[in-house]
Please model this.
Amino acid sequence: MSKIVACIDGSPAALAVCDAAAWAQQQLSAPLQLLHVLEKTDYPSESDMSGNIGLGTREHLLEELAELDNQRSRLMLEQGRFMLQEAQKQIEARGVASEQIDRLQRHDNLVDSLQENQADIRLLIMGRQGEAHARAANAVGSHLENVTRTLQQPILMALDGFSAPKRFLMAYDGSATANKALNMVAQSPLLKGVPCHLVMAGKRVERQREQLANAEKMLQGNGFDVTTATLEQEEVRPALLNYIKENEIELMVMGAWGHSRIRQLLVGSMTNWMLHNSPVPLLLLR
Model:
């Protein structure tokens, strides 16, 4: 059965990931897996220092260094287990039953681990910054950017202070990517009952009003309360951010990246910019 996977680490974003995971589990009624990956680059490797100048004859020093590496490895594993346990407590406190949650710790590359198991992932939840970028405002962790480019499953980027959204914005441009995202939203229970602002932005929106009207009808036919808006402005990105602020939007939904090279350039640039600058959680659909 497909599951929700929430990536847990030692960054402040882990609390938001827990809140988002609890909300998503209750909306989707799907099993939830808490995942902590100990990257191979962070994991001490066994070192043979017998050939180093001055160390070959100091057996006791080599043994002490090896023991320090082993201790560090054990501490990192124990820290990861503790983080997963605390994350589960946070999520259970938000009403998710313990039998719906499992914990997994892996010694692997995060992207490789997710890609290997993506067939079983219904929704992936990550924070904007991991431990390495926790203090950098609006920085996007390398893991998040790599995962959004690689994984085909929906990805929810949780931000600090996450709460169940009262309204969401869906950026729509009439493209195949946007229509696929539209269908995914319409068919999923994740956002059912949440009012939708369906927004088209750009210089040529007048030509696309029929597409917008058809998209509105499709969502309404699936039970959504829909508000449409066209933002006829040259600069799409600040227009969307202004709309989010003025209408108290609490979640943004958009199609990500695209397939053709031109599409990857246009949509990919927009996706990357929103990863860095969105003031609200971002749901990326492929």
About this structure: The two ends are 20 Å apart (CA to CA). Strands lie at 3-7, 32-38, 101-107, 121-127, 155-158, 168-171, 196-201, 226-231, 252-255, 282-285. The chain has two domains: 3-42+76-158, 168-280.
